[in-house]
Structure formats: structure tokens, C-alpha cells
Amino acid sequence: MSLAPLIRPARLRAGARVAVVSTSGPLPVDRLEPGLDILRGWGLDPVPMPHVLGVHPELDYLGGTDEARARDLQDAWCDPSVDAVICSRGGYGAHRMVDLLDWAAIRAAGPKVFVGYSDVTVLHEAFALRTGLATLYGPMAGAETFLKDPATQESLRATLFEPGTVRTLGLDGARALVPGRARGVTYGGCLSLLAADLGTPHARRSAAGGLLVIEDITEPPYCIDRILTQLLRAGALDGVAGVACGSWAGCEPYAKVRAVLADRLGGLGIPVVEELGFGHGPTGLTIPLGVPAVLDAPADGAPATLTVEVAALL
User: Fold this and answer.
1) What pLDDT is recorded for position 2?
2) How far apart are the two ends of the chain, measured CA to CA in Å?
3) Model confidence at 58, in pLDDT bands (50, 70, 90)?
């Protein structure tokens, strides 16, 4: 059964209330207000949830206890006055709290904008598979790239307010690793988190008809090889229509990463694009997940693109 487009939430308008939630690692205190100020500058009303600056009492790589992080996300989503939920940062921890959420209640609360990347991949998959809701793989309110890079900020702002203006995605350096053109429904995120989801009760069972977007950070080339091989051996890439690769920050040297991608993905007989421009790199474009799109990887060396066939938000 092929992937089907998911339910899209409404675009944001001036005055929209946006909850900022820490779902994974602890947010440095000095990153909260600058991120909120950017959102306020867009005319939004950002509301940090109670445990946004939390730190686990023993496991200091977690932004508070699993229960507290889950409660913040649950409360934000089920609050009818909240129009969007933006994660504060990635790190690690979403796997630990995803099953503590009441997904029936989240589904009943209806579609809202959900934004995040990196470790938040676990939650993107959960929203897609447990609620049928489309989400945005985009910059987080306390991420350094979001705080420092105007192009990253503008990609998210335009997607939130004027989604029809950002239908074609890709930085100038995006190129075909394997040429071709494919249509499918976007899904994916951080490569290592997709592999970590394998075998869990609510994991994705099929990639048929999907356009996979992947990126990662600080994974040596042999680890990327291992992760892709695991996905291939598990059948998790069976039927995938195309692959768009984002940044591989800290996975250097890139020439070796590129060789791994070509080796592991080249045999699938599908288009593969490299360096599209999303994820942990110096510029992180906002990628809609759960929408029909076309991946264009020209053989002549022209820039590759990912074009969503509908606006990310209604």
C-alpha cells in the first residue's frame, strides 16, 4: 500500500499562539529569549511551556523527566488556544517519551502546525502514523542555525505564513547523485532516528510511494553505511520512490559520505539528490512531511529540487 498524503493544518496568521516545547535535550537558558524574540518579530505569540528549560535530575542529557516533557507536549497540543507547537531543540529523548503521549487525544484535538528536526524525527513519524497529520521538518526555536541564519529563519517564516511561496525547495548546490525524476509523499528525517524506530510497535511498515528525506550529524561514514544497510536489510526502503539528502554536518569527509550514499542507495534504481539544504547544516530549509511532491534530479548537472504539489499548510 502506497503512502497517502496526510491531513494538513492551517497556516499561521498574526497573533497566532505558538507553544515552545522541549521534547528531547535540555535547552540552554541563553537560547530561549532570542528564539522567542524572532517569533515575536513575526507577529506570533510564543508561549514557553513550563518545563522548556528543564533538566533531568540524574540524566542531564534530557530536558527534564520523560513525564514532564510528554505532559508539556500533550498540554500544548490539546490546548484549543494553541495554533502551533515548535520544539526548542533536538538532542536525545523523544524515544523515551513518545509512548507516554495520549495519541487518541492528540488526534481528537485536530491538526496543528508541528515543527522540529533531528531527534524530533521520532515525533514526526508518530504524528504521521498514529494521527495521520502532516508536519514540518524545520528549524527549532532554540537551535543555533535558527538563531543565526537569516535564510533558515525565512524558510520557516514563509512556510508558516505564505506556504504557497515556498513550493520548490533546494539550495543552489543541490545536485543529482542518481539522476531521475520521481513523485511520492514526503517522509523521513534524521537517518539514525529512523533506524532507531525499526522494530518498535508503531514503526512504519512500508516506504512504498514515499519520497524519503534524510540527513544526520556527527555520524562517521561507516556508521551511515551501517544505518543504511540496516534499513535496507529490514526492508524499510522497499518501494521508496526517491531519496533527498540534506546536510551531513560533522560526518566528514563528505567525499566518503557521498561514496557511502552512492553505494548504498545507487542500487535502488531511483533518483537520489544530495545536499538539498535541510537539517543540521549552516542553512536548514523547512521540509513539509506528509505531502505529495516531485523530486527532480537532472542528469545535466542543473540544480536538483524538491517541489511540493500542494502548499505545506492550508
Assistant:
1) 87
2) 26
3) very high
Amino acid 77 reads W
- pLDDT (tens digit per residue) in 97-120: 999 999 999 999 999 999 999 999
Say how far apart CA 36 and CA 64 lie, in whole Å: 20
Residue of 171, 191, 193 whose CA lies nearest to 275? 171
Per-residue model confidence as pLDDT tens digits over 7-56: 999 999 999 999 999 999 999 999 999 999 999 999 999 999 999 999 99
Look at residues 77, 79, 121, 122 and name the one whose alpha carbon lies nearest to residue 103: 77
Catalytic residues: 118, 215, 280
Partners of residue 17 on adjacent β-strands: 45
Tens of pLDDT, residue by residue over 130-160, are 999 999 999 999 999 999 999 999 999 999 9
Q: Which three cell numbers stand for residue 164?
A: 504557497
Query: CB of 244 within 8 A of CB of 159?
Result: no
DSSP annotation string for the chain: ----PPBP-PPP-TT-EEEEE--SSPPPHHHHHHHHHHHHHTT-EEEE-TTTT---SS-TTSSS-HHHHHHHHHHHHH-TT--EEEES--SS-HHHHGGGS-HHHHHHH---EEEE-GGGHHHHHHIIIII-B-EEE---TT-HHHHH-HHHHHHHHHHHH-GGG--EE--TT-EEEE-EEEEEEEEEEEHHHHHHHTTSTT-----TTEEEEEEEES--HHHHHHHHHHHHHTTTTTT--EEEEEEEET---HHHHHHHHHHHHGGG-S-EEE--S-SSSSS---EEESSEEEEEE-TTSPPPEEEESS-S--
- Whether the full predicted model's pTM is greater than 0.90, yes or no, is yes
Exposure class string for 17-38: b at 16+ Cβ within 10 A, else e: bbbbbbbbbbbeeebbeebbeb
